[in-house]
Design a protein that fits this description.
Layout (H helix, E strand, L loop, with lengths): L7 H14 L6 E4 L6 H6 L6 E4 L2 E4 L2 E3 L5 E4 L1 H4 L2 H6 E4 L8 E4 L7 E3 L2 E3 L2 E2 L5 E4 L4 E3 L2 E3 L2 E2 L6 E4 L4 E3 L2 E3 L2
Parallel strand pairs: 1-2, 2-5, 3-6, 4-7, 5-8, 6-9, 7-11, 8-12, 9-13, 10-14, 11-15, 12-16, 13-17
């Protein structure tokens, strides 16, 4: 009678090793060192990635996709309030939010450490949350003047965690 060796131990070893071999690692995407714009950094993100933005003025409108990611100025690392005032996102297009967060993010998604300004027109919000619940913290949201709804932060169908923001002149 022949003895057949069982493959079960190898299957168990593969099952234990494969998940760790294929786990995604969070990536820090630096703007402008790695990406010319904040939006390009966001577009390259996978879940749990961070877009870390150096001081400067960024003329753009941002759209968070479906992932829980962090988009932050260097304030996230330094805790220096000057980073908030020196990292400015100003609307590049009238009628849309400066930052639009859509896609069902949880509180793990974070927008942190910016001056957000210049939203004008029909939905010229500083930050607009649609069907999502991100964390919005340590920002200065100022001079966003919609003609229809919103202002500093507009929320529809969501429950963001909004804390320690300076919201003025909206």
């Amino acid at each position: 009678m022949k003895t057949i060796k069982s493959a079960v131990p190898w299957v168990l070893i593969l099952a234990a090793v494969m998940p760790t071999a294929f786990q995604a690692r969070a990536v820090i995407r630096h703007v402008p060192a790695d990406y010319a714009t904040i939006q390009a950094g966001i577009d390259a993100c996978l879940p749990a990635d961070t877009v870390l933005v150096e001081r400067g003025n960024y003329l753009e409108n941002l759209f968070f996709g479906p992932y829980d990611i962090t988009v932050a100025s260097e304030y996230l690392v330094t805790q220096d309030p000057a980073d908030i005032l020196s990292t400015v996102i100003q609307s590049a297009a009238p009628g849309i939010p400066v930052v639009h967060i859509i896609g069902g993010q949880t509180r793990a998604a974070l927008l942190c450490g910016f001056t957000i300004t210049g939203g004008t027109g029909m939905q010229g919000n500083g930050v607009r949350c649609s069907g999502t619940s991100p964390t919005i913290a340590y920002n200065t949201i100022t001079n966003n003047c919609p003609t229809y709804d919103g202002g500093g932060i507009y929320v529809e169908l969501g429950g963001p965690d909004i804390r320690r923001n300076n919201i003025t002149g909206n």
